[in-house]
UniProtKB/TrEMBL annotation, chain A:
Superkingdom, taxonomy of origin: Bacteria
Upper classification of the organism: Bacteria, Bacillati, Actinomycetota, Actinomycetes, Kitasatosporales
Protein name listed in UniProt: LLM class flavin-dependent oxidoreductase
InterPro entries: Diverse_substr_monoxygenases, Luciferase-like_dom, Luciferase-like_sf, NTA_MOA
Keyword Ligase appears in the UniProt entry: no
From TrEMBL, chain B:
Source organism per UniProt: Streptomyces sp. NBC_00119
Signal sequence, start to end: none
Luciferase-like domain residues: 41-389
Residue sites binding FMN per the record: 109, 163, 220
Name of protein: NtaA/DmoA family FMN-dependent monooxygenase
Amino acid sequence: MTASTGRGLLHLAAAVDQPDTYEADPYLTLTRLAERGALDFVTLGDSFGRPGPDALAVLSRVAPATARIGLVPTVTTTHTEPFHVQAAVATLDWVSRGRAGWRPEVSATEEEARLFGRRAAAPAAELWGEAGEVADVATRLWDSWEDDAEIRDVATGRFIDREKLHYVDFQGATFSVRGPSIVPRPPQGHPVTVVDTTQQHAYDVAARHADVALVNAAGPAQAAAVRAGLRRRAAEYGRDPDALRVLAALRIDLGGGEHAAVPGHGGGGPLPSDLGPLYRGGPVDLADLVTAWHRAGAVDGFHLTPVVPRRDLERLVNGTVPLLQHRGLFRTFYPGSTFREHLGLARPANQYAALAGDLS
Amino acid sequence: MTSTAKQPKPRGRRQLNKHIHLAAHFPGVNNTTVWTDPRSRSQIDFASFEHLARTAERGLFDFFFLAEGLRLREHKGRVHDLDVVGRPESLTVLNALAAVTERLGLAATVNATFNEPYETARRFATLDHLSGGRAAWNVVTSSDAFTGENFRRGGYLDRADRYTRAAEFVATARELWDSWTPEGQPRPFAHTGQHFDIEGEFTLPRSPQGHPVVIQAGDSPEGREFAASAADVIFTRHGTPEAGRAFYADVKGRLAKYGRTAGDLKIMPGVTVVLGDTAAEAQERAAGIRRQQVSPQNALLTLEQIWGVDLSSYDPDGPLPDIDPVVDSGLSQGRTKRGDPRAVAEQWRALSRAKGLSIRQTVIETTTRQSFIGTPQAVAAELDEFVQSDAADGFILVPHLTPSGLDEFVDQVVPLLQERGAYRTEYTGTTLRSHLGLKEPVPPAREEGLTA
Ligand SMILES: Cc1cc2nc3c(=O)[nH]c(=O)nc-3n(C[C@H](O)[C@H](O)[C@H](O)COP(=O)(O)O)c2cc1C
């Protein structure tokens, strides 16, 4: 379990995004590489607004060819159907045998709205409110089947105990869903919800719904403050703050030899860039940065986006990770099989089963 | 000698050279699927999908097929509990199956009413890229307020609107699939029509098949017309030789007015097969499966679907009800209707009286007879004859057991079809289009405008 100081398990994740890549193999190569480094999970971004394949599809394609690593596609919630979104994420959990996550995102541009022609573009703040509702209805639909709903009772001829299936009757501001889901409860109960708070307006959704929050920070002190703030907000929403993992988002450019280009850059902290904090230097100093932040209890881990996908991920896995392992900070193998187990997060109780228990 | 010479030359198989196409249907959420059998495994675990897909690929099948239902079926206002229920989302499963198969086509059923063209076209194009050209889309149009309760869109479309929407949906998807230049540059599209008014850029280059294969499953005149104009394959229920030939002639006859030829649209009925070492053993096994499919509870339920009223006080081993059915009672939701209930009830009562059958026996007798029952040799010959006589171009095989239900067929019947020269002995192409012998859609010329 992660202690509240953040000095528990270190969690590492990497982005496997690659420009102009539509076939499976390059994604498979990077994910396998990340899995060789025993990383917690990989992410793959997605947007209707720029070229690229459907991210959830790509990671489904990758799932049977990998064994342990968590798989987190971006899934947009603005122009999609919440019912389809939850079914697809639940299915990713089934085909990966408990390794699915999802990173909700919104589509706020006029261009994206015109691709669908169903609703006008809306402000991101409003759309993140809706994304929160989608996250909410998703967990309800995942719970709409209790784990032991399938009974195969030959004597009564019943395949399921329908008392263990539940309507969700969700009424949101912009949509409603009756339920139950068409997909039985996924192996993890709830696939892992990753919210990128570096997106404006996503902060509250993270505090309320995220299992993993990605944050921007220039140094360990700032990171610690952001983490504390998120945990506080999560507690205000009635959540256990220890059930939230906060990872610093960091772009990494490991092209410059063994050590940092700027002396002290690694240990001192990343440089600001247009796309968020950037570490530029070698794998050794990156290990120092990770170590320093982790020892300071600033964050629960890092989400790393390689600037040059293959090169930087290779250096991370071959250079930085072994050092962290050697220092006893990072796992050398996966003791668990599900993504939640990597994160040290419990399998959630079913909200409807709990309800039924209270009544009896 | 002379008399034989006067006869027309026998229609030699190898000269006809019509190759059978085969597809594997993952067992569905209805009582064709037997879950009580000790060999029955999970409907959900990926291992089950992998098993059937690998079996199909071992049998050199054209494609693997997944159905879809967007709301759990209900009976008497409650979730129906007697049949297998619950399944993973199709496209996600197929993307995963692309990792464990190499040549097999991968077909997903995706509704045109509760989806939007941009997202659907993108998901199929992605599958086509990730599978190296093996994607197929079964465009269904089921649309009712009951299913709509799970969606933003909600509501209901009547049949005419369903098919105009589906036709425009597919046409729009094709515009998106065609939108990038052959050199791999995105090019803007714009579509304005009755149902969709959209514009922008697609996020994927042209996929390996150009357009994923389009399948249609629906039987009304509107459905047939839609298939004739836009589909590559029809998944039909007409699985008997007579009905098959009539359907085949009807649908192929509609092609010319769309500038298409008979080979452009493949007719594949969904069929079931039961094998045995002797004809008698096959019949016995078939009867055993039918008894498994129609449990006492299922027999009453089937009757209630027709009668439209609660019949739980009836004995499944007793006679049929004397009362008349209530039409449109709404007792059952989310399943396809069987025709005029009063006529069906009358037929069934007559049958029961004539043969002295109980409720359960009547249901077994009327609803679940398998399409092909016999020794592997007999079944292979019948399948071949079915196709050579233009009752179909191939079959979507619906096994009753998950996931091992096609093991025997692949081991025992496929080699015989190959011996007859009626079936491929290897995959000659890499794409589903090539397996089906379908033309590659021609990309629009560079200077041609993309605006519809
Ligand atoms: C063989 C067959 C398979 C079908 N499979 C599905 C399915 O998986 N999901 C679905 O929603 N509808 C399915 N349908 C329903 C059709 O898409 C269509 O909505 C229905 O047949 C009514 O259209 P029609 O009036 O043209 O017959 C199927 C229909 C047929 C004939």
